[in-house]
Amino acid sequence: METVMLANGIQMPILGYGVYQVNDLEECERVVSEAIEVGYRSIDTAQAYGNESAVGNAVKKSGIPREDFFITTKVWISNAGYEKAKASIEESMEKLQTDYLDLVLIHQPFNDYYGTYRAMEEYYREGKIKAIGVSNFYPDRFIDIAEFSEIQPMVNQVETHVFNQQVEAQSIMEEYNTQIESWGPFAEGKNDFFNNETLKKIGENYGKSVAQVALRYLIQRNIVVIPKTVTKERMIQNFDVFNFSLTDEEMATILGLNQKESLFFSHYDPETVKFLTGLGKSK
């Protein structure tokens, strides 16, 4: 598995497995176990997903040493603030059946995320967390926390796919030696993603699917990807993206698909922020 080196020297797999919206705990444990069988070692979960315990069970039952895994979770809005964040991280470690976490992110830039980050910095210094970062931080808030934190974010996980490529945001992250990570690399199928003619045509050159071309494009831009699927055949397919390379011309063609807008939500929309902060009060 190819890796990227984070700012502190930690190696993070460039391809992982995400469990967003796998709400049934039995199903989640099953699919994570299958992903591990395929070869995935980086697993991305979150407090808000409600499936950390299932991920922990699958990792434990695999029999594979804990140090071979890279486990990510995220602190939810309702757990923001120094004391609440610390308690929630302890709970996450208990559910995941581990005494340390490889990466902890702030899930959304709302509530007292500075208090949350101070708690994460403390746990990082104690060795309970190997790397810390943020998620869904747009350039403005990303720069803010990067400038005023003692330990700059090592990762920023943001919506990144061929229709919203985050080129400018990635450039800003690189200024702070922060690794960009993609959530939703398949745009959750929006814009008829899996039938995109541009990606399909390029894939024909290599005997690869639209999904594989999309993942390969992001990987060649040094973007960490965490595709999610509950089908083992697609897990295998998503894993099979290291035996071909896109040409400069193909990369430029795919860049042309960039619409530079979210297909999901915008933090610049007051109603969206009200909705997200409302979720932070209810969970």
From TrEMBL:
Transmembrane segments: none annotated. The active site is at 49 (proton donor). It holds the Pfam family Aldo_ket_red. CDD domains: AKR_AKR5F1 (cd19133). Residues 19-256 form the NADP-dependent oxidoreductase domain. It comes from the Bacteria. Belongs to the aldo/keto reductase family. This is Aldo/keto reductase.
